[in-house]
Every structure is written in C-alpha cells, then in structure tokens.
Design brief:
The chain is of the alpha+beta class. The termini are far apart. The relative contact order is 0.14. A five-stranded mixed sheet has the order 5-2-3-6-7, with helices on both faces. Strands 1-4 form a two-stranded antiparallel sheet. A hairpin with a 5-residue loop joins strand 2 and strand 3. The chain contains nine helices and seven strands. Bound molecules: zinc ion. The site of zinc ion has 6 residues, from loops.
Length: 191
C-alpha cells in the first residue's frame, strides 16, 4: 500500500494521511482522499497567528486620545486550538482599557485577539498576551481582559459538564491595584 506522499504539497498533509491510516481507515477512499490536504490547509489557517505581531495587525489604527473615559469592547468571539490536545477551544473575550495618551481603533482589538488565538494556545496565555499587547501599544492607565471559553478537549471527552465554561482574567495598571476600579469594569463587562 504505497501512499503517494510526494503528491502532497504540504508536509503536514503527509502526516495527516499517515494518521488516518494509523486510525485504521483507508486514506484512499473517496471521502478521505482530499482530507490530508484540507486538514493541512485548515491547520495552517488556524495557526496563522505565528506570522504576525500586534504592530502588524494594528497598522495605523492608533490615535491620540480625546477623552478620559474607559473603553470597553465586549463579546469578541475567538476560536483557538489547545496546545495540549490540538483540539478547539472557543468563546468570547471582553477587553477594557483606561486610555493614557493613545487609543486604538475598535476594529483592531478583534484582530489582536485573532492573532494570538490562531496559535497553539492555552486560554490563560491568550488573555495575558492580549493585555500585554494593549499595554505595549497604548501605554494605557489600566487594562483588563476577561476570556470565557469552552474547551472541546474537555467537553468531548466528558471531562467537563456539558455547558461549563472556563474564565480567565488579566489585569494591568490601575486594575491590578485598585479593587474598586476593577469591580466597576467587571460589572460593565458582565453587562
Ligand atoms: Zn486540551
């Protein structure tokens, strides 16, 4: 049973083909024949965040602050792959910051989230990385990032209850040492 490995453009596809065979399937049957290439393309897309840094996705989307008010972006959807099982976890991120001299275009925040979500990840790290990126780009007075996600590596294997979600939080600046400020933002995030 010779696999036409050299016909697969992406080296990941050859591994996917071998994996399918190891599972006892016939990688040549019609439904699976194109699967290795599709899997490789999907995995490349889902890990495309390795190819950029926050500065790249933000571009010219940073402006001078005009007010002093808190900026809150709620319900930024994200999908990622857990680095322990290579299975999806997905949910929402809420991002708040208290501007210093700079603000960021609101559409750029989901792009920063995607940049980190499209890597092999753990939820805690995405949360911290989004907070660090905003701190570095904007030097704000405070940042809070809250993520809520479901992990298929837990849900599909029956490790967690069907609808339970994992929450992680990262705080910087004023939100790290002012409990009242932190409480205000948290209640706004929860709407
Ligand atoms: Zn996992």
């Amino acid at each position: 049973m010779n696999m036409p490995v050299d016909a697969l453009a992406d080296p990941i596809a050859a591994h996917a083909q071998a994996m399918i065979a190891h599972l006892g399937e016939d990688p040549r049957r019609a439904g699976l024949a194109e699967t290795p290439e599709r899997f490789a393309a999907a995995l490349r897309f889902l890990t495309g965040g390795y190819e950029a840094e926050p500065e790249d996705v933000v571009g010219r989307g940073i402006f001078e602050a005009e007010g002093e008010g808190l900026v809150l972006v709620r319900d930024v959807e994200f999908h990622s792959l857990c680095e322990h099982h290579l299975l999806p976890f997905f949910g929402r991120v809420h991002v708040a910051y208290l501007p210093g001299d700079r603000i960021i275009g609101l559409s750029k925040i989901p792009r920063i989230v995607d940049l980190y979500a499209r890597r092999l990840q753990v939820q805690e790290r995405i949360t911290e990385q989004v907070a660090d990126a905003l701190e570095k780009l904007l030097e704000p007075k405070g940042v809070m990032v809250l993520a809520e996600a479901r992990h298929l590596c837990m849900a599909m294997r029956g490790v967690e209850k069907q609808h339970s979600a994992t929450a992680t939080r990262a705080v910087r600046g004023v939100y790290a040492h002012d409990a009242m400020a932190r409480h205000d933002v948290l209640s706004m995030m929860k709407g």
